[in-house]
Amino acid sequence: MRTFLVLATFAAVLLIGAAVAIEVASVDPAMAQQLSPARSLVWAIGANAWAFARPLLQLIVVFLILDWLLSKVGVRLSLTDIGAWNTQTFIAGLIITTFCVAVLANIEAVSYLKDVVLIVIGFYFGTRAQSLRPEGSAGMAVATPPAPSPLAPGP
User: Fold this and answer.
1) CA distance 118 to 125
2) Per-domain residue ranges for the chain?
3) Contact predicate 15/45, CB 8 Å
4) Which residue stretches of the chain are H helix?
5) pTM of full prediction above 0.70
6) Comparing 57-66, 72-81, 113-122, which segment has the lowest mean pLDDT?
7) What backbone torsions phi and psi does residue 80 show, to the nearest 5 degrees?
8) Which of 1, 74, 120, 148 is the most buried (most CB within 10 A)?
């Protein structure tokens, strides 16, 4: 993860440097004409990179704010606890995180992803409820009134 962040930062600095160099070299009108395709390419790459990174950065900020608020309440989140999750919890969290990124990125197919998220959440909590139910019980428990005792006096 750290290597990815270093490479992304290096690419961003390189892209900004290229944009600044093109703008500085474009002071001369003849040079500006020659550098016009390069300027368009650099700005297109920068715009697409920002469109990709913006929702991720927004999600990171939301997680940091959530972590800060939870730490004020006394709840501490740790990445080492992720190893204790079962597969269902991990997949549900991954799909919900993907839905959050898709909503922040304004992806057109987010309505289909919403349906998948609702199915996954329903399945996740349904299987959790089933695993927490005592053995031998099926469905909802219904309270029935006690049967009268045969030894009890009649009315």
Assistant:
1) 11
2) 1-77, 81-132
3) yes
4) 2-25, 29-73, 87-104, 110-132
5) no
6) 72-81
7) -70, -20
8) 120
- Measured between alpha carbons, how far is residue 104 from residues 46, 59, 98, 100 in Å? 19, 8, 10, 6
Q: So what's the pLDDT on residue 80?
A: 64
Distance in angstroms (rounded) separating the CA atoms of residues 146 and 151: 14
Give me the mean pLDDT over the 117-132 stretch: 77
Report the alpha-carbon angle 56-60-95, nearest 5.
Answer: 65
Query: Considering the chain, what is the average pLDDT of its residues?
Result: 77
Length of the chain: 155
Distance CA 63, CA 65 (A): 5
Torsion of CA 47, 50, 54, 56, to 10 degrees: 130
Mind listing the pLDDT tens digit for each residue in 64-87? Answer: 888 888 888 887 766 666 556 677
